[in-house]
Amino acid sequence: MSTSQSSFKSFVLPMIIICALFFIFGFVTWLNGILIPYLQIACDLTDFQAMFVAFSFYIAYTIMALPSSWILKKTGFKNGMMVGLWVMAVGTLIFIPAALSRTFLTFLTGLFVMGTGLAILQTASNPYVTVIGPKESAASRISILGICNKFAGAMAPLILAYYILHDGDAFKQSLETMSAVARVAALDSLAARVINPYIVMTIVLILMGFGVRMAPLPEIDVTKNGDDESVDHSNKKNIFAFPHLILGVLALFFYVGAEVVAGDTIIRYGLSLGIELNVAKAFTSYTMVTMVVGYLLGITLIPRVISQRFALQMSAIFGVIFALGVVFTSGLTSVVFVALFGFANALVWPAIWPLALSNLGRFINTGSALLIMAISGGAIMPLVWGHLSDSFGSQQAYWVMIPCYLFILFYSIKGYKLKSWK
């Protein structure tokens, strides 16, 4: 086999396959942005209750991350990815009885199962892409995946909104004049609109599972993390002996929380300002677009012009600035600052992963699982936002973003360097 053929099979082809998976991740994940206002109407929910859409989806990562690591040890990467896609298909299938019964708890169950499938896929794919090439360019590779993810994320809410909320403003107004019986019938009809899109997604996920299983995706040893062989881990008794990892998990928790708040609340925030649903339904896509811009800059600049760590520092600083912009401006300008969170968030995930996994050696599988568990920030922080929104107003709720970015800034300056708790 020639060198070019070997390089294609060992690096290029796996990257193409992982890019396709990240497209699926993004499409499914960022549907939540439109599902929240949709279910808020269909199931008569408060802001706090509606945020359980994000909670149910992202809490699956915390609960299932370690079991996912165990599954991958038993199945290997290819079979594990296939299992993850099929578990996601079960989740999308649950949306059918949820829609027919218009039961919020059943919708949440489907979201949890979808999150479980994604936990398996993410546990496999993130360390895989981190070690498949040079460690110094890991952030650039993850940025490429991020573009696939967020491009899908920009498309997903627009496509789903076309099917389920194309007449959102008129529908909301008509509900106010309906009798109780007619209102129930109208909401049942609204709930049923998700059935066909989720049947299509189920079929696509099943076919993707077969595709991954048949693809020539090589197995790699993720424990070979490009570590310096002179690093001695004999004195490390468990994963908690690595401060740079544990603090990285916390930084990732706050990052994912900030990312999900930005993407999943922006439509609701726009509605709270009196912006029509027909306009606001596209706002999540704008957040995804600014993220793609950030990813493109990451691919261009890292590591040739700036380091992964400097990118992380600037991301945190921009996050604080944009958060202040949200709460101290008004109207559409304030919404634009929420959308700009996407730009601030773009390079955080790809920068934290290689910093947190650095020199873990035999602990890398557990370290990766802990980082996946940090995705639970996407479950907790939107609930905090929802509670603050119900109590103090949607705009003031964005104060929750400040401590998130400040901790990320701390990690980028000092936390990543700590090798001992002493």
From TrEMBL:
Keyword Transferase belongs to the record: no
Main location: membrane
Localisation: Cell inner membrane
Keyword Hydrolase in annotation: no
Membrane topology qualifier: Multi-pass membrane protein
Record Pfam families: MFS_1
BP-aspect Gene Ontology terms: D-glucose transmembrane transport
One GO molecular-function entry: galactose transmembrane transporter activity
Record key words, sorted: Cell membrane, Membrane, Transmembrane, Transmembrane helix
Record-annotated Major facilitator superfamily (MFS) profile domain positions: 14-420
Membrane-spanning segments: 12-36, 48-67, 79-98, 104-121, 142-165, 198-217, 238-258, 278-298, 310-329, 335-356, 363-385, 397-413
Cellular component annotations (GO), alphabetically ordered: plasma membrane
Family: Belongs to the major facilitator superfamily. FHS transporter (TC 2.A.1.7) family.
Role: Intake of glucose and galactose.
Protein name: Glucose/galactose MFS transporter
Organism per entry: Ancylomarina salipaludis
